[in-house]
Amino acid sequence: GDPRTKWGVSGSIWHLPSGLHASAHYGTQEEAQSNFGANEPVLVLGETEGQGTHLYIQGGFARDIWGIGLTNIFGEYGSSEDFEFGEKDPTFATTDVATMWGVGIEQTLDAVSSVAYLHYRRYSNNEAVFSAVSGPLPAIDDELSVVHAGLRVNF
Questions:
Q1: Closest by alpha carbon to 29, among 106, 81, 70?
Q2: b/e per residue 71-109 (b: at least 16 CB within 10 A)
Q3: What stretches of the chain show up as alpha helix (H) in DSSP?
Q4: pTM
Q5: Closest CA to 90 of 54, 125, 47, 39
């Protein structure tokens, strides 16, 4: 089974008369310490391996401004610290902080059951990697900007 303990909480609110809305999610996980082999040195950060948190918030304005469908203008922010999203390589331990912020606009087109959208997101990652065999490795600092636009047709 999965040795990780995970929990999360989320919520959303939308004030229909004003169009203001907000959503948030917070999650954490903790992975029990383990020995990957009697002859392998294992570096454990803190009291647990893979202990981490994740936060995501979004807020904006959504109303039918032009009579063609809902217009949604929003901003968002997310941060993960020492959070494992997939399988972990037992010979490496990471301590990293990844952040994302973004803005977007979406226009629902009620007549054709579609949504036109334009989103911008900026991702940043600062990761320190430790090898169980060779010790600290150079830090990885990555940044990525993504713009995506399109038309989602519902049918």
A1: 81
A2: bbebebebbbebbbeeeeeebebbbbebbbebebbbbbe
A3: none
A4: 0.72
A5: 39
Contacts 24+ apart (CB under 8 A), 33-39: 34/3, 36/90, 36/91, 36/132
pLDDT along the chain (155 residues), means of 10: 75 97 91 49 45 90 96 94 58 65 97 96 73 52 86 93
Handedness of CA 16, 61, 65, 111 (dihedral sign): negative
> Residue 92 is encoded by which pair of tokens?
């490496």
Considering only CA atoms, which of 75, 78, 153 is closest in space to residue 120?
75
SS3 content of the chain, % helix, strand, coil (to 5): 0, 65, 30
What separation, in Å, do the N-terminal and C-terminal C-alpha atoms of the chain show? Answer: 39
